[in-house]
């Protein structure tokens, strides 16, 4: 079965850094576009960053120049390096996988999330 497991969340002060990891299993990792989403209380889940099978990246305007998404296909892992964190970055961060090849093309898989709290 497909499983995405996030890790690396925690409590940091504004201006600090965190590195989130998402370990994937049950998928052919290199066939999947990967992304990080986040959701704050009372807010809709929003796309933070995405990375294609070929390594092309996109970022929400709110995190550009502060966050970096990357992937290691050999480790079936996607990362989100977060720097210069702001209190408004506080949210549960979710890993997302979307197969782009094979019979599951078009499916959408989610991790359970990891909490990032940024204090002022």
Give an overview in words.
With 120 residues, the protein is mainly β. Helix content is 0%, strand content 52%. The protein has no helices and 11 strands. It has strands at 3-7, 10-13, 18-25, 32-39, 46-51, 57-59, 67-72, 77-82, 91-99, 109-110, 114-119. The strands form 2 sheets. Strands 2, 4, 5, 6, 9, 10 and 11 form a 7-stranded mixed sheet that branches. A hairpin with a 6-residue loop joins strand 4 and strand 5. The mean pLDDT is 96.
What is this entry, summarized?
This protein has no helices and eleven strands. The chain is mainly β.
Features:
120 residues, mainly beta, four-stranded antiparallel sheet, seven-stranded mixed sheet
N-to-C span: 40 Å
Instruction: Give me the strand/helix succession.
Output: EEEEEEEEEEE
Broad shape = globular
Low-confidence stretches: none
The pLDDT mean sits at: 96
Count of alpha and pi helical runs? 0
Task: Name the structural class.
Answer: mainly beta
What does the radius of gyration come to? Answer: 14 Å
Please report the total strand number as a whole number: 11
- Describe the sheet with the most strands: 7 strands, mixed
Task: Compile the SSE list and pairings.
Layout: E1 3-7, E2 10-13, E3 18-25, E4 32-39, E5 46-51, E6 57-59, E7 67-72, E8 77-82, E9 91-99, E10 109-110, E11 114-119
Parallel strand pairs: 2-11
Antiparallel strand pairs: 1-3, 3-8, 4-5, 4-9, 5-6, 7-8, 9-10, 9-11
């Amino acid at each position: 079965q497909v499983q995405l497991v996030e890790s690396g969340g925690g409590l940091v002060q504004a201006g600090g850094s965190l590195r989130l990891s998402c370990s994937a299993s049950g998928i052919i990792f290199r066939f999947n576009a990967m992304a990080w989403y986040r959701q704050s209380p009372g807010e809709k889940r929003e796309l933070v960053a995405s990375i294609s099978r070929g390594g092309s990246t996109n970022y929400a305007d709110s995190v550009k120049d502060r966050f970096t998404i990357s992937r290691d296909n050999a480790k079936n892992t996607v990362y989100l390096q977060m720097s210069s964190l702001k209190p408004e970055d506080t949210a549960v961060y979710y890993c997302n996988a979307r197969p782009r090849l094979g019979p599951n093309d078009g499916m959408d898989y989610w991790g359970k999330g990891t909490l990032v709290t940024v204090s002022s």
